[in-house]
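2024-03-11 09:14:02 DEBUG pipeline.ingest accepted 1 chain
2024-03-11 09:14:02 DEBUG pipeline.ingest length=228
2024-03-11 09:14:03 DEBUG pipeline.predict start
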Amino acid sequence: MNVNSNGYTYGFATILVVLVAVILSSLAMGLKPFQQANITKEKKQNILQSIGLEVDRDQAEAQFPDFIKGQYVIKDGQVVSEDAEAAFNINMAKAIKVATADREVPLYIAEKDGSKYYIIPLRGKGLWGPIWGFLSLESDGKTVFGATFGHKGETPGLGAEITTPMFVDQFKGKTLDEADFTINVVKPGKGMNPNSDVDGISGGTITSVGVNDMIKDCLNSYKGLENI
């Protein structure tokens, strides 16, 4: 075999590329269950954080059933399923692409210190990519108890500030606007209703608008839902 020939070089390169591809594919397949497990734990962690429980991912996995007492599938303000697994596994990125009246979304019922909370998942679009979060309501179904937000690529110091206590803590105690069933994120200092308006991020207008639209869009699915 002529190791200096072009055929040898191309053949060797092809074999090497195929071998590396097989190895990477095998690694990806092997790691997928662990990645999915971490995603599940992080989701449970964020759900619990919305009711003020600061736990790490492993603690969240263990404590989730202690606080989450019900998981429902909601469609157009009505419970269509009480299957906890089906509710938890709903992909919100896909759900929000469906018309509000037709989309199926999850609702989590939590109990903490003798009080009941409704936890609603949120999903929307920021400046550079998806944004998401969870909003917890008190037993009256309209007073915000807590909130968490996340993002994929918002600008540090600007849109990324939606994850900070400075922004998140504003939501606690706010009441859903009776007309629109939402919390309004407005330009700082421009709020007209202190009960349902929170200040957006200075310099992060597009992300703030994204959070506002996300909350309004996602809460629409629960409008008219009777107490569970």
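2024-03-11 09:14:41 DEBUG pipeline.report The first helix runs from residue 6 to 49.
2024-03-11 09:14:41 DEBUG pipeline.predict end
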